[in-house]
Amino acid sequence: MKNTALVLIDLQNDYFNSIQGAKWPLHKTEEAAANALKILNKCRDSDIKIVHVRHEFAMDNPPFFAPNSDGAKIHESLTPKNDEEQVLKNNVNSFKDTNLKEILDSSNIENVIIVGAMSYMCIDAVTRAASDFGYNCYVAHDACTTSNVEFNGVKVDATLAHATIMSALQFAYANVHTTDEILDLI
């Protein structure tokens, strides 16, 4: 795929079950990160633009991703290289109050591959926004992760929450594929 960028969203230590002291571990983060790494490595080998997005909460006593904390660091398995773009965000939508769109537009990006966390928050927000901006979106569903959710007394397992969001994104906003299918497209 020409004019493509990989956008890795919030694959930070506080989301990993394997990190002692992680403040917000998600469902199967390690598996999602391993798949994200496969895509990252293929993009590096294919000279595709790479953008790492990292979240820090701009508030007192955040539940996770506290500024300058170990939990807010990108997981070591996905450490950005010097020539890879990095975006710091303080909102759910990676485009809001950041230079993400400028980074993509300055490289004439038409296609974005999206991986990361959380499916029902930041992945959903960035994919919908990217689609609204006119980018062709490709989400690797098995390189994304989320958590259990609850609303109005209804508890939803992480796998169902993830499937619901992926279904909605596939319906109108993105091409939703497996990691292997994304690797074949690259």
From TrEMBL:
Spans through the membrane: none
GO terms of molecular function: hydrolase activity
Superkingdom, taxonomy of origin: Bacteria
Record keywords, A-Z: Hydrolase
PANTHER family with a match to the protein in the record: ISOCHORISMATASE HYDROLASE, PEROXYUREIDOACRYLATE/UREIDOACRYLATE AMIDOHYDROLASE-RELATED
Name this polypeptide is given: Cysteine hydrolase
Species annotation: Malaciobacter pacificus
